[in-house]
Amino acid sequence: MSSRDRGARARRRRILLYGTAVLLLVLTLFPFFWLLQMSFRSNDDILGFTLLSRPTLEHYGALRVGQFPRSFANSILASIASTLLSLLLGVPAAYSLSRGEFRARRQLALWVLATRMAPPIAFTIPFFLAYRHLELLDTVLGLVLIYLTFNLALVIWMMRTFFDGVPRALEEAAWIDGSSVWGGFLRVTLPLAAPGLAATAVLCFIFSWNDFFYALILTRTAAMTAPVAIVNFMQYEGWEWGKIAAGGTLVMLPVVVFSLVVRNYLVHGLTAGGLKE
Amino acid sequence: MARMDRSLSDAALVHQAATRPPVGGWAAQRRRAFLLGLIPALVVLAAITLAPALYLLVTSLTPLSLVRPAETAWNFSRPWTNFVALMADARFTNSLGVQVRLSVVTVSLQLLAGLAVALLLNARSPLLEAVRTAFLVPMVLPPIVVAIIWKVLYTPEISPIHHLLARVGLPVSSLITNPRAALWAIALADTWEWFPFTMIMILAALQMIPEEPMEAARIDGAGPWQLFRFVILPLLRPTLLLATLFRLIDSIKAFPLIYVMTNGGPGMVTEVTNYYAFIQAFNFSYWGYASAITVIMVTGVFFLSWLITRVVGTEVDIE
Predict the structure, then answer these.
(1) Residue-range definition of the domain harbouring residue B221
(2) Is B14 an 8 Å CB contact of chain A?
């Protein structure tokens, strides 16, 4: 076989590979794009299967009245507050675990894994019962606290591996120059772990933002989040597909963008507690 | 490292002696600082995970119902009633069966689809790099949006798929209201949502496979299938087991898809154990009973993970 033949064969194989990959991708993402285009279709054409000719923003406009804006604000507030609180508690703990020689490290990893494994209903039942007495039902604070059940363990887990990757010699130099333990951490180690910190924060935000189950059970009206509000469009207001599609689009766009930004850390975050880095 | 530590602590000690009152030395001071960093997080973690677990366990021993809280709360007169009743509860047994079917089907399909797509995309090229990223979209969507997307696809009046099938003369009635198809419809949606997860895990493992064994096998005349069967697959084994573990655990949490698409029905064909516990607590207000179901579920999940990590643990280093 001549080398030119082989070259042509390799090229054909390459084209076939790319073609198959792109075709599979289009098929896979079709349901996602279908919802997206539905949100821009006018109501009399919502069930249309023709190409979208006259895109409209009427469904997005319809979302501006009623409960949706407030639920969207609740989602943002609960997600950001839970992320900040988890970082505040979890980052110093992660650093301590990375640097101090604690014998209970292994047990702690198991603990993190266990909280990751427990089904949400296992937290929901006791939290709901306790919240009745603490008057935390239907409050954003109540959501922030229950989101800690997954976010805090996640922060401790992820940040520990990032701190493990920062050389100790640098903070030790800061200590010799007179920094306190935490002073050296803030001035030297934390800035070096900043990309990891950003990725962890984004993951915390995404996991809180994506929550449906806890918000469904622990909120009613005042603290309702956007995912619950969309489902209410289905159940209480008849089948307003345009509004449902528009709400769904608004809820998914921020996470899709964020997730693709932190895609390299995604598996690490999703398998927290189970993978040795 | 140890020597560096010592010289460092010497230096720090000298420094400390000059500026601060020595309190048990630099090493002890560091240790106290680390404890201070660790304790708040551990206290909070215990308060939000261990305390609820204990509360759940205690509640499962009572007949708690919020309809009659006065008589049922903290009533331990017959602690095992819930568990005894569960053994005879056909709806509970049914939910376990549904769960096993759903988990086995979705995890197997996700492994197969993830493996196939990963093998296809495992080549260096900017185009494939972009394709790999785009494949992650289903997994990063909020689960409720996934549920809405598939509700649209499964509702004949608005579904493009039903529309297309009717056009070519093969009309299909709704899958999610059909008792024989509803569970598989949910399994398909779940597979779509989570095969990207197994795909990226496998892709990462594929990129770690060294070139030498592949080259050696090729020289020995191995074809693509033999290469896959005898070189690649054994090297992927730990990753496949780990992906199985995580998907299996998460498959037990399936909720939004079922809640939005079938509500556990038709009848009870899509009512998984998680969903049954939810109904018992939030629809029927049998909190003690729901807690007992949950306790059994959590025990099952832990046992299953322990079993798998024992298998995996011998091959990959699990902390």
Answers:
(1) 92-272
(2) no
